[in-house]
Write a structure and sequence with these properties.
heterodimer, A: mainly beta, five-stranded antiparallel β-sheet, five-stranded mixed β-sheet, 10 strands, 50% strand, B: mainly beta, seven-stranded mixed β-sheet, four-stranded antiparallel β-sheet
């Protein structure tokens, strides 16, 4: 089956910092989505990407659909405390149809 | 939560007992999904439904069954709960379409502990 790797697994942020995370897969996908999960809640869609090379922003969040269609990146600029949570990549389409596969998640924490 | 209610929100049960989790939606979305979330594994699809009485297996379906007799309700049943099924369970919904069927809306989850 396809392998989906999300990194880093966790990171500490300091207010004002820019942070990045990425997902890579062994398979080609037609869509890449990014979700965020706040503690005690279900994931919420942040950004959806539908075309290779596409760069899309949602406020301080920017995501890119890799040109090979096997990867995607999410950047958070000028991080704030409410950015804490778990971020998931979720590629779809292609052989997967509409069944999303989720990455293992990147847990974003605030530096003490 | 886009009109999605999961019940119960928390449950503790014993090994070998049957458990049913309910997902109720008021959005009239056609697709419904059950995922489980475990540390290090992200979200894994258990079962999904494309419509009333139309269900199929996901990647971790062993030990689980589902039923969908109405558009708004999707039930997940553990016939005989095991400790490995201790997890947080999420229901999700979406609508068919090239730009919508992958945009999932999630419920708030059910924390299930099997002792």
């Amino acid at each position: 089956g396809q392998q989906l790797n999300q990194s880093p697994q966790s990171m500490f942020i300091q207010e004002g910092e820019d942070v990045s995370m990425n997902c890579t897969s062994s398979s080609i996908f037609n869509t890449w989505l990014w979700y965020k999960q706040d503690p005690g809640e279900g994931p919420v869609l942040l950004i959806a990407l539908y075309k290779a090379g596409e760069l899309t922003s949602n406020g301080r969040l920017t995501a890119q659909f890799g040109i090979t269609r096997k990867d995607s990146f999410l950047n958070i600029s000028a991080s704030i405390p409410s950015d804490v949570g778990i971020y998931f990549c979720a590629p779809g389409g292609g052989a997967a149809g509409n069944k999303l596969t989720f990455g293992g998640g990147t847990r974003v924490l605030v530096k003490p | 939560d886009a009109g999605i209610t999961q019940s119960p929100r928390h449950k503790v049960t014993e090994t070998g007992t049957p458990v049913t989790l309910r997902c109720h939606q008021t959005e009239n979305h056609r697709y419904m999904y059950w995922y489980r979330q475990d540390p290090g594994h992200g979200l894994r699809l258990i079962h999904y439904s494309y419509g009333v009485k139309d269900t199929d297996k996901g990647e971790v379906s062993d030990g689980y069954s589902v039923s969908r007799s109405k558009t708004e309700d999707f039930l997940l049943t553990l016939e005989s709960a095991t400790s490995s099924q201790t997890s947080v369970y999420f229901c999700a919904i979406s609508d068919p379409g090239p730009a919508t069927n992958e945009k999932l809306f999630f419920g708030s989850g059910t924390q299930l502990s099997v002792l």
